[in-house]
Amino acid sequence: QPSSLSGLPAGVGEALEAEGVAELYPPQEAAVEAGVADGESLVAAVPTASGKTLIAELAMLSAVERGGKALYIVPLRALASEKKTEFERWEEFGVTVGVSTGNYDSDGEWLATRDIIVATSEKVDSLIRNGAPWIDDLTCVVSDEVHLVDDPNRGPTLEVTLAKLRKVNPGLQTVALSATVGNADVIAEWLDAELVESDWRPIDLRMGVHFGNAVDFVDGSKREVPVERGEDQTARLVADALDTEEDGQGGSSLVFVNSRRNAESSARKLTDVTGSRLTDDERDTLRELADEIRSGSDTDTASDLADAVEQGSAFHHAGLRSEDRARVEDAFRDRLIKCISATPTLAAGVNTPARRVIVRDWRRYDGEFGGMKPLDVLEVHQMCGRAGRPGLDPYGEAVLLANDADTKEELFERYLWADPEPVRSKLAAEPALRTHVLATVASGFASTRDGLLSFLDNTLYATQTDDEGRLAAVTDTVLDYLAVNDFIERDRDGGSESLTATGIGHTVSRLYLDPMSAAEMIDGLRSVARDAAGTGAAAGEATGEFVRTGDDDGDEPGFGTYTRPGEEDSVEQEGTDKEPTDPPEVTPLGLYHLVSRTPDMYELYLKSGDRETYTELCYERETEFLGDVPSEYEDVRFEDWLASLKTARLLEDWANEVDEDRITERYGVGPGDIRGKVDTAEWLLRAAETLARDVEGVDGDVVVAVREARKRIEYGVREELLDLAGVRNVGRKRARRLYEAGVETRADLREADKAVVLGALRGRERTAERILEHAGREDPSMDDVRPDKSASAAAT
Length: 796
Ligand code: ADP
Description:
- By secondary structure, the chain is of the alpha/beta class.
- 46% of the residues lie in helices and 11% in strands.
- It has five domains: 12-197, 3-Layer(aba) Sandwich (Rossmann fold), CATH 3.40.50; 204-416, Rossmann fold (3-Layer(aba) Sandwich), CATH 3.40.50; 430-510, Winged helix-like DNA-binding domain superfamily/Winged helix DNA-binding domain (Arc Repressor Mutant, subunit A, Orthogonal Bundle), CATH 1.10.10; 515-716, CATH 1.10.3380.30; 721-795, no CATH class.
């Protein structure tokens, strides 16, 4: 048992030893010396695979042994379950573990009984907003991959969340795990923590560049990997790793490319290399795996993946369904899949080391930048760090590719000899502060402007900045925005301006909405309320036609603008045959559009031809949209609005039972994206339903319409199938087949002729039994239905 370990629950030391931890790695030793097992705060900036997790475990387990409670914050949901499984091996020694995923708007009360809790930073933020009582009991918090505070989208949440946890609990032990970054000392200063910084790795990592016929490594060594004329450089390197046996085994490779499409085509190309090197056993197992992937989804993505997997090659990107991603990762760890072609997301994510990492693309298209942009040094180092499997490989190799001498030189300069960039806080930006200022006020962390600014003083931003005024300036802009939208009230009497969240402000904070999303949704819902109540302008507005008004806004001299009627009292009413008191239609498309245009919905881009298609759709369906439709002359706004319409139509297709593969084709997305959009829409519609109840004048019908639209998204079905699709194991396709066979409701399932049910379920007895059971049928057994009988019943 590692001699320096003490203060851990009984049995843990022995268990670690049994796992092969004979002694601590040097960075772990340094962490223990710095007091990580005695409650001291620590920043550990060390390379991938050098044992950061054990540092965290020492901190958490010793905290628990002292009667405390620990929180482990991960950057990705997929990592939350991986870490939970990992920590669950301590349950045998009386340490309980819980993971908090799922909906953002609950307080996760049950977690109060757990010793170690794993959650994403967004989830922790939300738990604080919802007043989870156990937050006060925490004595140790671990932040994994803390260098991601640098991320403009997610970094600020981590930053503010850590600041809140430390404010609630001044003695809190904070352990931050980081990749090697340029300024780990600043992170340590921010967190009042000791710093352990090291380049040590348990396995040698050789980094180099392949050009011509060899890889040149940083250490000056060389490896001949000659490429024949016309041969692909990547393929050659993958083959070379597979043909180089160490301990009787060839080495697997990870190939990093810059887009999903490239990941897919690379995987396809590499099947030539991997397929010819499989044993018969491997071939059989891979065939089974491919069948599983095919039967899970009928999209092109799934079938392309299955075709590649059958040959021992795979691709990995965010467009894959999470089940398939996990299958690929597992089979790679089991050495069945010999090569994964991945987008950079894999580098930051789960534990999939390989003997050889090939960074094929070091530039990536960047929309804001408007062209191809080189990856950060930190990113490339993270990718390279995936090379070398502890206990399996004698070394890891990371190879960048150059096809001319100049590029080779550049790659050495830019990446291999370079230090990673320093991380920089992205907090002082409006979108980030909008949500965090509201939540900070709503959950009582600050009740005055001064209090708010002094709270924000506990962030990395404040530690780093040399422009003191900027955070205050952005905060004031955000306060104005929140006040104008009635999310907070400000009172300027007396010394410091006081701040309180309004009722709706509290709701928005708890729902975890970006206040701008909430404002957009409230505005849309209000347009229905105003119209339905017959106040404001007359009925024409409810139909939302574009009526040409005079050139009155000065923005577009000589053009005039298209506005929604009702905004201008003098607007002529034209082309409407509705009575003035008609309530507006609230359709699923209108609601899907409403939630799709919020900043909480990830955008689909308009491709060529889309502008025409969706402009046309905009006019065709104009009566359905809630709130203002921007003028066609407001280029950027209109374009955004159309992009949201594209998302809304994708959701509508899903709710109309359009096949998944049709959808992926029509919108140019992967099956994982459909899932992502559907989940987000479900969450936003749930929030919209809550808001609809709070907005004055919105009647009950609207609330019901929102709920139905949400349920249709949840199951991906038309209205008549909602009841059936709600039965476990049924799903959208089976629901439709059952319905067509005359089994229309859950109640029907309890009464129906079993042969008919079995026929509709294509003779799958086990499935039929499970479904009947879930529908509450007394005797779900199919034993009394012979297959031949069911077949003939289905035929009639
Ligand atoms: P990181 O989180 O830094 O990327 P991990 O914590 O996942 O790295 O560690 C990589 C591997 O090293 C794990 O399989 C872990 O079990 C093993 N490991 C960690 N510490 C030790 C040690 N002191 N002795 C032997 N193996 C260790």
